[in-house]
Amino acid sequence: MLGMNKNDTRMLLLVAALTMLAPFILNPFPTDSGLAQFNAGYPDLMQRFVIFGIFAIGFNILFGLTGYLSFGHAAFLGVGSYSAVWMFKLLAMNVIPAILLSVAMAGIFALLIGYVSLRRSGIYFSILTLAFAQMSFNLAYSVLTPITNGETGLQLNLDDPRILGVSQTADGSIPVTNLFGLEMRSTFEMAVGPWAFQFNAGYYLCALILLAVFYLSIRIFRSPFGLMLKAVKSNQQRMNYTGLNTRPYTLAAFVISGMYAGLAGGLLASMDPLAGAERMQWTASGEVVLMTILGGAGTLIGPVLGAGFIKYFENIFSKINESVLHSWFSILPDGLEDLLVTLVYPFVGKGWHMTLGILFVLVVVFLPGGLVEGGQRIVSWLRSKKSDDKAANGKTEPAE
Amino acid sequence: MGILEVKGVNKRFGGLQALGDVNLSVKENSVHAIIGPNGAGKSTLLNCLVGKLIPDTGSVMFDGQSVLGRAPYEINQMGISRVFQTPEIFGELSVMENMMIPCFAKRDGAFEMNAIGSVLSQKDIIEKAEAMLKDMNMADKRHMNAASLSRGDKRRLEIGMCLSQEPRLLLLDEPTAGMARADTNNTIDLLKQISDERDITIAIIEHDMHVVFSLADRITVLAQGTPLVEDEPQNIRGNPKVREAYLGESG
User: Fold this and answer.
1) Which of residues 348-367 of A touch B (CB under 8 A)?
2) Three-class DSSP category at A170
3) B residues 98-127 lying closer than 8 A (beta carbon) to A
4) What pLDDT digit, counting tens, does each position of A168-222 carry?
5) Which residue of A105, A110, A213, A235 pairs with A83 in a disulfide if CB–CB is 3.0 to 4.6 A?
6) pLDDT tens-place string over residues B63-88
7) What pLDDT score was predicted for residue A194?
8) Do A224 and B112 touch (CB under 8 A)?
9) How many residue pairs bridge chain A and chain B with CB atoms within 8 Å of each other?
10) What is the pLDDT of residue A336?
11) Is B90 on the interface with A (CB under 8 A)?
12) What is the tens place of the pLDDT at every residue in A121-173?
């Protein structure tokens, strides 16, 4: 289908089902049950899942295929966000021009930064991208205050021109982002018994874009261009002595992944029209590296899984505080309750990074291929178990 | 005029004169061997031919065009393919993919942005790669990971990859180094077959005299960065100068 083989089609359909049904899948617990805090099916978080999924898919085109590890991709995310907010300030509140500008601006930045950084490979490349990203962060934070509004961050104002829209609505407030009139924040709530499911326009826009760019990344992975990128990762020396110029290949991959990051930044601003310099900081660049490696670098679906995993932890585990823990362990005797709370507390709430760090170490050590490899191992284990059962069920077949 | 003309090439690394006034002419469709003791400058000379090093002085002309100052990929696109001492292949990719990449390089040049079409829809590339795998007796290994091939198979694959670019000059850097006798003989047979069947010039750097004397039409002996003699194999064997410099005085 659509020029893809069976497996890729199945994977695209799987991602489509997951994203379209996310409001159900992420809200498995009734609203007033004790487990409701593990529900992740609210618009804000679901948007983050898919937006950072897009970011990681793009990062994986560079890192997964060519092996060039960029530590500065958050710069393109930030550029995308600022561009989108400026579009909302100057042109209109429609998200389409904002997203287009953020992709284009990120592409231009990626071309400039990539052109210089790709003159080196390995750790030197990583350091160059990190340096450029920190430079962008500092510019945004202080020097370029007229454009970025410094540490306050760029926001919409009542006196913005918005030449194709209105500066303020009839009741004197700032207009909201929309897609040809469909407000991004509009949410339809559906109550089924004790469950409540939320369907948000902004989320579905992001999800559809994720599907489109995921499809594009499948095509890139399977194309001659993708094959060349894998060859760059495998052996640059052989590439050079096979008449292939590696530089334009890596630069193209860098620009494409920068545009993905810009798209993610533009979508972040489209969902919530503000942009701050912290989006460009090195921790944000590091986060996408973690997502990609955790999910499985070089695999198609890995980055999406990794992004979902980390964002879930960040938003759900960080909310578990001491009183929540006490309520969980309240049936236990007092001394034991306090002990358990003391033991568990460092790993949740503000300590969620610790849990994430431990998980990351475990994955890298035991599953170098990330969550995808974990999934593959489970599937092959189930298969071998199945065939064992068959063998045990009577007819013994000669061993091969 | 040979297809490859090296004239007055000098290369100095600090205080070491690696190549001193090297002249070399490789005739079209011949097999030309360059031999010499360790440190004679064989590899330096080869690196000057493929653009990895730039000589301090002198000229290197391939088919009437200078190769100096060009990047390795440009020199390759002119028609010079290189086989490395340790096989340089794409270890993480399948044997078939390894063979397809040079076919793409031949058809599309140094860079081509085809990011949407599937590799599997490139019928001409697949056909060509499959034919070459067959020629190399590797058709049954097409789905294997290239890194898991045996040393001899890696060498065959690398030679096949170079050939699928239809080069006019094939440079081999000690192609049988570290190989078992059987693999060495297979490689000799393969190279003989290539030189007989194809319209190709082969220049080979080799340590193993057995390989050199079974293959070469012409031999250049390098010693201390300078060509000592250039002659046909039977004359090289008996040449006292060569014995002294290379085979050992008593040899």
Assistant:
1) none
2) coil
3) 100-102, 104-106, 108-122
4) 888 889 999 999 999 999 999 998 888 889 999 999 999 999 999 999 999 999 9
5) A105
6) 999 999 999 999 999 999 999 999 99
7) 87
8) yes
9) 111
10) 87
11) yes
12) 999 999 999 999 999 999 999 999 999 998 899 999 998 889 888 888 888 89
The single residue listed with the structure tokens 């499911």 is A197
DSSP conformation letters of A307-376 = HHHHHHHHHHGGG--HHHHHHHTTTS-HHHHHHHHHHHGGGSGGGHHHHHHHHHHHHHHH-TTHHHHHHH
CATH number at residue A310: 1.10.3470
A229 found inside a domain: yes
CA A219, A223, A228 angle in degrees (round to 5)?
A: 135
Q: Give the distance from residue A342's alpha carbon to the nearest chain B alpha carbon, in angstroms.
A: 48
- A215 burial level (CB within 10 Å; 0-12, 13-18, 19+): middle
Instruction: Convert the pLDDT of each residue in A246-282 to its tens digit.
Output: 999 999 999 999 999 999 999 999 999 999 999 999 9
Distance CA(A64)–CA(A130), nearest Å, equals 18
Give CA separation, A82 vs A72, A168, A239, A279, B127, in Å: 16, 20, 38, 10, 49
Q: Is residue A339 part of a domain?
A: no
Q: Where are the domains of chain B?
A: 1-79+167-251, 89-166
Query: What is the nearest CA distance from A3 to chain B, expressed in angstroms?
Result: 7
Domain total of chain A: 1
A220 vs B contacts (CB less than 8 Å):
115-116
Contact A228 B104 (CB under 8 A): yes
| Cβ pair B115:A219 closer than 8 A | yes
Q: Are B71 and B51 in contact (CB under 8 A)?
A: yes
H or E segment to which residue B220 belongs: strand B218-223
How far off is chain B from A238, nearest CA to CA, in Å? Answer: 6
- Find the CB nearest B93 among A3, A220, A230: A230
The pLDDT of B181-200, averaged and rounded, is 91
Q: Establish if B213 touches chain A: CB-CB under 8 angstroms.
A: no
Boundaries of domain holding A259: 6-29+39-319
Give the closest of B111, B115, B165 to A242, CB-based: B165
A236 lies in a domain? Answer: yes
Q: Do B76 and A242 touch (CB under 8 A)?
A: yes
Structure tokens at A173: 């407030």
Which of A242, A245, A254, A299 is most worth mutating to test chain B (most B CB atoms within 10 A of its CB)?
A: A242
At residue B73, the pLDDT reads 96
| Contact check, Cβ <8 Å, A240/B113 | no
Return d(Cα A391, Cα B74) in angstroms, integer: 59
Q: Does domain B1-79+167-251 have CATH number 3.40.50.300?
A: yes
pLDDT digits (tens, 9 = 90+) for A303-355: 999 999 999 988 888 888 888 888 888 888 888 888 888 888 888 888 888 88
Between B245 and B32, whose confidence is greater? B32
User: Looking at the partner chain, which of A223, A234, A244 has a beta carbon nearest the beta carbon of B73?
Assistant: A244
Q: What's the DSSP call for residue B7?
A: E
Average pLDDT over every residue of B18-26: 93
Residue A302 has pLDDT above 90, yes or no: yes
